[in-house]
Amino acid sequence: MMIAEIGDIIEFKEGLQGIVEKVNENSVIVDLTYMEDFDESVMQEKTVINHKRYIILNNSKQD
Q: Does residue 15 fall inside a structural domain?
């Protein structure tokens, strides 16, 4: 299992995406305002996602 790092873009729960702001032992805190349609949705700006529940779309360390 790959664990996301700060700045990575992840996808979870049927297509939601966000930028990792903090990495915890079992989860990450994600900023959801990254999504283009965030203003149209009714959700919090941040959420906590377990490491088992996301995939990394864009690694912040890529060259």
A: yes
Whether 37 is in a domain gets the answer no
Give residue-wise pLDDT tens across range 38-49: 777 667 899 999
pLDDT at 11 over 90: yes
**Helices H, strands E: what count in the chain?**
0, 5
Range of the domain at 19: 1-26
5 within a domain of the structure (yes/no): yes
* 46: CB partners within 8 A, 6+ apart: 21, 29, 30, 31, 32
CA 33 vs CA 1, 20, 38, 48, 58: distances in Å? 26, 11, 6, 14, 16
Work out how many domains the chain is built from and give that number. Answer: 1
